[in-house]
Specification:
Blueprint lengths: L9 H7 L4 E5 L5 H6 L6 E6 L3 H7 L5 H12 L5 E5 L2 H5 L7 E6 L5 H11 L3 E12 L6 H13 L3 E6 L6 E7 L2
Parallel strand pairs: 1-2, 1-4, 2-3, 4-5
Antiparallel strand pairs: 5-7, 6-7
Helix pairs in contact: 6-7
Length: 179
């Protein structure tokens, strides 16, 4: 099985598995989305709420509006990118099950938020496709870890090939959907 060591190798991962319909949940300024776009997907959905409280909590940028403008300017002219502003769970309802090849979750990092994204977005990935997410840290019991382990406990027969990248911090988790 092909694995990546760091999330910076995502382009190689997407190309290796021929993942062409991709989605990122929690885009913010679009740094990682722009990196994934180097794999030349046929379709890329960018989902974020761009809520003010999220911006002030994590970043030293004055307004969510400013972050949204930065992102929109960065993707201007990219015809394969569609931006959907809204609550990630509500946005998931816009897509039929098994629509995507790959979904990357980096939105609400609370236990409930991460678990809700896993529950609602995993079915949107085709059988054989991949789900991944950011800020998993195998050395701690942060809320992302707890949500991922809780989800896996109740869905272990629906996934395989779980792995975690090897950055010293803010790792990414990956698993392949099989049911």
């Amino acid at each position: 099985m092909f694995r990546i060591e760091t999330r910076g190798q995502i382009v190689e991962f997407l190309l290796h598995y021929k993942l062409k319909k991709i989605c990122e949940i929690g885009v913010f300024r679009g740094d990682y989305l722009l990196h994934m776009l180097q794999s030349n997907p046929t379709e890329c959905i960018a989902v974020d709420s761009w809520k003010q409280e999220n911006v002030k909590k994590w970043w030293k940028i004055s307004t969510a509006k400013q972050v949204y403008r930065i992102f929109m300017n960065r993707i201007r002219g990219m015809k394969n990118v569609k931006v959907i502003k809204g609550d990630s769970v509500q946005v998931s309802l816009l897509f039929q099950d098994e629509y995507f090849d790959f979904v990357y979750i980096d939105a609400d990092h609370s236990f409930e938020g991460c678990l809700n994204d896993l529950v609602h977005w995993t079915p949107k990935v085709r059988i054989g496709g991949w789900v991944a997410g950011h800020d998993y840290d195998a050395k701690t019991t942060n809320s992302v870890n707890l949500a991922v382990h809780h989800f896996m406990k109740f869905n272990k027969n629906n996934m395989k090939n779980f792995f975690v990248t090897k950055e010293p911090y803010t790792r990414s988790f990956f698993f392949q959907r099989i049911r």
